[in-house]
Amino acid sequence: MRMTITEKILAAHAGLEKVSPGELINARLDLVLANDITGPLAVKEFRKIGVDRVFDKDKVVMIPDHFAPAKDIPSAQQCLEIKEFSREQGLTRYYEVGRNGIEHCFLPEQGLVVAGDVVIGADSHTCTYGGLGAFSTGVGSTDLAVGMAMGEIWFRVPESIKFVLYGRPKNKWVSGKDYILAIIGKIGVDGAQYKTMEITGEAISDLSVDGRLTMTNMAIEAGAKNGIIAADEKTVRYMTGRAKRPWKIYQSDPDAVYEDVIEIDVTDLEPQVAFPHLPSNTRPVSDSTRVKIDQAVIGSCTNGRWEDLVTAARIIKGKKIHPDVRAIIIPGTQEIYLKAVKEGLAEIFVEAGAVVSTPTCGPCLGGYMGILAKGEKAVSTTNRNFVGRMGHAESEIYLASPAVAAASAVLGRIGSPEEVL
Amino acid sequence: MQKLKGKVWRAGNDIDTDLIIPARYLNTHDPEALAAHCFEDMDPGLIKKMEPGDILVAGKNFGCGSSREHAPIAMKHAGFSCVIAENYARIFYRNAINIGLPIIVAPEAARLIQEGEEVEVDPADGAIKNLSTGQVYRGEPFPSFMLDILAAGGLIPYVREKVRARG
User: Fold this and answer.
1) What percentage of chain B has pLDDT greater than the value 90?
2) 3-state SS string over chain B?
3) Residue B143's pLDDT is what?
4) Where exactly are the structural domains of chain A?
5) Is the pLDDT of residue A73 over 80?
6) Closest chain A residue to B62 measured between Cα atoms?
7) Distances (CA, A) of B113 to B3, B37, B46, B106, B132
8) Is B155 in CB contact (< 8 Å) with chain A?
9) Do A5-263 and A273-416 share a fold?
10) Which tens digit of pLDDT belongs to each residue from A13-24?
11) Which end of chain A is more exposed for a tag (fewer CB within 10 A), N or C?
């Protein structure tokens, strides 16, 4: 059939035998998602369509996570808007603060998305779920409103670029974050514009599901429509016991057509740091050690998962956060938060002098819970280092892995875990 | 659709949606409130200097980053009649069409048109005329169904029509 995973998933959801890049299709949606920033606007547009009910009350997810727990009165109002809409529509998938998490950590964890799904979310990092072998992509609020009303949406079938990561990194701290930063550094922030990034290779087989979700999470940072990693036995283990629905595993055909195949040898790859003000502005951590920092953030939909906290705790355990640094650690979900408390990670962080926050997107997008003043610099495990993203337009963000962020928090400057341990 | 005419403001490559409307203002979706902060971190005076109908000309990958539809909404309500760029990030592109902000893919025009020049754009066929220099450029025409969306005034009126027809 000569199809990629993405083409197979889209064909199955469009009721077609085969689809080809460039083709416009209508695809059935397994799940649609909005948050406290994009949800209110989607609700406003939904009201204008002329339908009374969403297409399926079990397939619309609303999560207050961006400016929640509400940071101010207008934010509280926006949170209330999606809560009231969820009540009115009888949505079974509204998740209140205290029982939720950062949406792209929460949905896979709760088994709300599974391999083979088509998911849209009014959040650009919806592409995360490709790490489970699903097709998922970010849309705006109006597209989301239409998705909520109709249960389907139009797509242009994207061309696929295949990334083959081979070798085993000699540096044990190299993670999924370093792989994806290295890829974006190579192809640029528009290197996969409108396209699928299909990521494969032995380095990916070796990578945990948490690490894979980090990689597909940042596909948007290369302009991609979606990132996707074929589900394997690790994915099945991850989904088992969580999945709320049956999954379907697709593989690309051996003769599937790719616009480009990019091979990357990760053997000698170092942890990566993306300098201001683009995620593509990457350097190896060894070339980044002169940057003094004021803040370290470990969390977000990119790196707020269990494995990320474990890595940070291994480095921070028994050490003190540098006197000049604020370290802010944000577990991605309530489940991860509880585990961090039970298994002593929270104690390690607090003992070291770090803040452990409730799950929220807060600082990543300059909302709250760690805003930068003029001239301040942060190392952050988040996904964007645009001008003003985390605070003042003259502040600076350096994107890195949890290992590098944790080491940097102790060092007071960007550095590698070897310098601390 | 009628032709658009306005004075040009220039922006560079990879203008992200945080620059178009910083997230710190996303605690509301009121279009006028958003418009007041449009491009604040890029050029704080721009909104006061510009006039309704002005046109933004940018380089590659315009609108990259967040999916916030607040970005094209802020631009539309700030008074921009149209965007011309070499190319766009895909979510911004869809959002702009969906809310009825014409955006034209025109690499040559995007490279050559200068700030302060007066241009005329025909969104229906992508024709761009630089009234200051007399040069004419051809932007990429929209696929027919996107023209239908734009002609309907955005995605919602377009879908409303389909819902009504379905009965």
Assistant:
1) 83
2) CCCEEEEEEECCCCCEHHHHCCHHHCCCCCHHHHHCCCCCCCCCCHHHHCCCCCEEEECCCECECCCCCHHHHHHHHHCCCEEEECCECHHHHHHHHHHCCCEEECHHHHHHCCCCCEEEEECCCCEEEECCCCCEEECCCCCHHHHHHHHHCCHHHHHHHHHHHHC
3) 82
4) 5-263, 273-416
5) yes
6) A190
7) 18, 25, 18, 11, 10
8) yes
9) yes
10) 999 999 999 999
11) N
Residue A63 contacts by C-beta under 8 Å, 6 or more apart in sequence? A33, A34, A35, A36, A94, A95, A100, A101, A103, A106
Question: Is A193's Cβ below 8 Å from some Cβ in B?
Answer: yes
Tell me, yes or no, if B91 comes closer than 8 A to chain A by beta carbon.
yes
Helices B155-166 and A141-150 pack at an angle, to 10 degrees, of 10
Q: Which of residues 56-75 of A touch B (CB under 8 A)?
A: 66-67, 71-72, 74-75
Give residue-wise pLDDT tens across range B121-159.
998 889 999 999 999 999 998 888 888 888 888 899 999
Indicate the range of B34-38, B106-110, B159-163 predicted with least confidence. Answer: B159-163
Assess contact for A103 and A65: CB atoms under 8 A. yes
Q: What is the CATH number of domain A5-263?
A: 3.30.499.10
- pLDDT tens digits for range A84-126: 999 999 999 999 999 999 999 999 999 999 999 999 999 999 9
Q: Does A230 touch chain B (CB under 8 A)?
A: no
Q: What is the ipTM of this complex?
A: 0.96
Is residue A203 predicted with pLDDT exceeding 80?
Answer: yes
Which residue in chain B has the smallest CA separation from A38?
A: B68
Mean pLDDT of B101-106: 94
Domain at B4-166, CATH from 3.20.19.10, 3.40.50.720, 3.40.50.920, 3.40.1090.10:
3.20.19.10
Q: Is A412 on the interface with B (CB under 8 A)?
A: no
Least confident interval from A188-192, A319-323, B122-126: B122-126
Is B85 in the A-facing interface, judged by CB distances under 8 Å? no
Residue B88 identity: Y
Share the mean pLDDT of chain A. 98
Q: Chain A residues with CB inside 8 Å of B99's CB?
A: 140, 142
Contacts of A159 (CB under 8 A, 6+ apart): A21, A22, A194, A195, A196, A258, A259
CATH superfamily of A273-416: Aconitase, domain 3 (3.30.499.10)
For residue A49, the distance in angstroms to the closest alpha carbon of chain B comes to: 5
Whether A235 contacts A135, CB under 8 Å: no
- Identify which of B80, B82, B74, B134 has the alpha carbon closest to the alpha carbon of residue B105: B82
